[in-house]
Amino acid sequence: METLSEKMFERSKKVIPGGVNSPARAFSSVKMEPPFIKRGDGTYIFDEEDNRYIDFVGSWGPLILGHCDKDVVDGLHQVIKTGTSFGAPTAIEMKMAELMVDSLPNIDMVRMVNSGTEATMSAVRLAKAYTKRNKIIKFEGNYHGHSEGFLIKAGSGALTHGVPDSLGVPAEIAKHTLTASFNNLESVENIFKANPEEIAAVIVEPVAGNMGVIAMEDDFAKGLRQITDKYGTVLIFDEVMTGFRVGFKGAHELYPDIKPDITCYGKIIGGGLPVGAFGGKQQIMSLLAPIGPVYQAGTLSGNPLAMRAGYETLLKLRNNPQIYDKLDKLALRLEKGIREAAKLSDIDITVNRVGGMISMFFTDKEVKNFEDVSKADNEQFIAYFKEMLNSGVYLPPSQFESLFLNAKMDNEHIDFTIEKARDAFKKLTR
Ligand code: PMP
């Protein structure tokens, strides 16, 4: 008999392309149909049939406090009674910006937008205006949203679906995006040598999460700052995923000596509501309209609901730094448990982890860049994913994505997951 999710997917597909509002949700990468999610509670989500899953997706990163965190929900209730949007300055935008500027070492000023895509798109425009140059360097397998200049050798859904380049991106635009290899400084140097006066920005995910979790090596990070300084190029950290995730100060906790000129945010800073932000040096940020010549705007930018959900989330994280230790310990427990479980069944896996971000590749090789990622066995992953889902563990539907732990998780959730992984690996070897 058809499940409610199956029925809803059929209906949705008639009116929404592919039945989803973002491609990865369609689960086509794992060759199955997605459950429709009805509600969330702490660490769990429930589908339309009331099947319960431990949620390791967390809305793809924002829900570091888990679903329906009391402070976030209470804050939203308060706001909603007073109106949902004004298109005029509000106190909560000011407080949010102050909190970010006070907390983050490389941010003098910040501008709010509605998604990570908008943040990176605007950051690059700013960098181009600041340097009066047109080209950017990005890294193969990094994902910076779906604006035109970024859909070139992109990660995440674009990677999973095997269509790294999108139709509709004109060649004249794509030619301004040059692609280097992550953790390979020589590939960056070569591009600079060939285009010494032309590179406006280098944009990087300091801990890549969109080809699975891969951190920048220290020398690579240092090298990026040195080479961008040498050539007068803006260094942009895309911390849409890592911001307030790999530590309260994001990548700064991991690479304190590397100071990006612009940093992009999203996900956690909206506490589960649509948001993005980009900030950086005053000198650069002052180029933005209305005080400068770079136009950027948004009807719902700084929306009171999104700001309040984000503000409550950031306050809680700031006031409870032990959350990061907890996420780190839980993720370490998961990492060890998964490794041991795979070993029991002689399955080759490589686990990469940074704090509470973790991913697992079906390969016995070290995974340090996109080339390594692409060698992982996808059929094994698909079988594993399905087993885990059937056992009540909701993983990202691709090994090229990060799992996200949340603050409501405990050892018992991790141990349950390890136990189910052990069973899943056993079935793979049969
Ligand atoms: N940058 C990074 C690093 C991301 O992970 C994402 C989304 N996963 C984006 C940008 C785009 O953000 P959004 O989906 O909010 O547009």
From TrEMBL:
Organism from which the protein derives: Proteinivorax tanatarense
**InterPro entries attached to this UniProt entry:** 4pyrrol_synth_GluAld_NH2Trfase, Aminotrans_3, Aminotrans_3_PPA_site, PyrdxlP-dep_Trfase, PyrdxlP-dep_Trfase_major, PyrdxlP-dep_Trfase_small
Q: Which family does it belong to?
A: Belongs to the class-III pyridoxal-phosphate-dependent aminotransferase family. HemL subfamily.
> What interactions and quaternary structure are annotated?
Homodimer.
| Reported cofactor(s) | pyridoxal 5'-phosphate
Q: Where in the cell is it found?
A: Cytoplasm
Gene Ontology MF term list: glutamate-1-semialdehyde 2,1-aminomutase activity; pyridoxal phosphate binding; transaminase activity
Gene Ontology cellular component list:
cytoplasm
Kindly state which keywords UniProt assigns to this record, in alphabetical order.
Cytoplasm, Isomerase, Porphyrin biosynthesis, Pyridoxal phosphate
Q: What is this protein called?
A: Glutamate-1-semialdehyde 2,1-aminomutase
Q: What's its top-level EC category? A: isomerase
Matches recorded under NCBIfam families: hemL, PRK00062.1
